Structures are given as C-alpha cells and as structure tokens.
Amino acid sequence: MELLSNETISLRAPEPEDLELLYHWENNPEWWGLGNTLAPYSRYLLKEYIAESHRDLFDLKQLRLMIDYRPTGATVGMLDLYDFEPHHRRAGVGILIDPVYQKNGLATEALGLLIRYAFSFLKLRQLYVHIPVGNEASKALFTRCGFTVTGILTDWIATEDGYSDVLVMQRINK
C-alpha cells in the first residue's frame, strides 16, 4: 500500500470541503481542555488555515492530516504533527476521531500510518504526546502504538476542578 494509506484508512491534506468538519471539531469546547484552545475559531480563520496547508512541515513546524475511512470515503478525524523540531528530529502528535467513529480501531490504524510516515519518510527520531492522566482511552491508544510513559508534568493543565497532571509519552525510532 501507499505510505499514507492502507486497506482501511487514508491520510491526506485538508481540502476546502473539510471546512465544516474542522469548524465543528475545532469549536467543540469539550475538547479544548485536551489542547491549548481558549476560544472558538471562525470559518474565515479555518479557511485561511486550509489555504496555507500546502506549506510544508519545515516551514510551518506543524502538519495536519485528515483521516478518511476508505470503505465509505467519510472523513472520520484528523492527526497533527506539531512543535516540529528539525534539528532534534522530533514532533508532538495529536489525534481526534469523531465520536461517531470511535471504538472501531480507526485511531490505531491512523496513528500507525502516521508513525510509519514520520519515521520512514520524514526521518524523525522521536514522537511524543502529552496526555491528561485521566484520559484512559488516549493512554491505551498510544501504548498500543508503541509509546511509553517517560514522565509526568505536575499540575500541567487547568481543569474545572483545579489542575491535572499530564503524562509524557514517547516513541523513539531506533
């Protein structure tokens, strides 16, 4: 199969047709605590983001890939490489699967494709992720994909109940 696809999943660059999906996903306040979003994104800003997505990882220091479910053609989520550091050959990873498509193994397949792309084509040395300690689903996903816990960031993110610790998980390309 191709580098960014298998029998089930295909990863691709954002297209203008993705605007409404991105608007819906990026503006869901339930997910803002998992990243650093503090306010909604406008359609205009997301349209500009899509228009700039042709610029490469070395230029933007981030890369977003949409996740398509090949049997139906539905876009089921997105993956991000962020905080790309070319000198140290590392990047952070973020993933979102629409709740309608969760618990079907699609996140595992998509993350597997991203890892293969990052390590074989981009020649990255390591990928890392920050996961709130209570996010069992994300911990399980990244563990299945070969990431290990390498540290804890104490009181790292603000929550409704105060502060939460965050696990640092890494996968090293040996």
Task: Write a brief caption for the model.
This protein is of the alpha+beta class and 174 residues long. The chain has helices spanning 19-26, 29-32, 43-52, 57-60, 106-121, 136-144; strands at residues 9-12, 63-69, 74-85, 90-97, 126-132, 148-159, 162-172.
Please give the CATH class of the domain at 9-128.
Alpha Beta
CATH superfamily caption of the domain at 9-128: Gcn5-related N-acetyltransferase (GNAT)
Low-confidence stretches: none
Record field, number of beta strands: 7
CATH architecture of the domain at 9-128: 3-Layer(aba) Sandwich
Strand order of the largest sheet: 1-2-3-4-5-7-6
Over the alpha carbons, how many angstroms does the gyration radius reach? 16 Å
Helix and strand content put the structural class at alpha+beta
Question: Strand-residue fraction?
Answer: 35-45%
Helix/strand order = EHHHHEEEHEHEE
Mean pLDDT: 87
State the shape.
globular
Q: Might you state the CATH topology name of the domain at 9-128?
A: Aminopeptidase
Keywords: Transferase
Pathway: Siderophore biosynthesis
Pfam families: Acetyltransf_3
GO molecular function: acyltransferase activity, transferring groups other than amino-acyl groups
What does this protein look like?
The protein has a domain at about 10-130: Aminopeptidase (3-Layer(aba) Sandwich), CATH 3.40.630.30. The chain has helices at about 20-25, 30, 45-50, 55-60, 105-120, 135-145; strands at about 10, 65-70, 75-85, 90-95, 125-130, 150-160, 160-170. It is globular, with a radius of gyration of 16 Å. Strand 6 and strand 7 (about 160-170) form a beta hairpin. Helices cover about 30% and strands about 35% of the residues. It is an alpha+beta fold and about 170 residues long. The longest helix is centred in the middle third of the chain and has 16 residues, at about 105-120. It contains 6 helices and 7 strands. A 7-stranded mixed beta sheet has the order 1-2-3-4-5-7-6. The mean pLDDT is about 85. The chain starts with 8 loop residues before the first strand and ends with a strand.
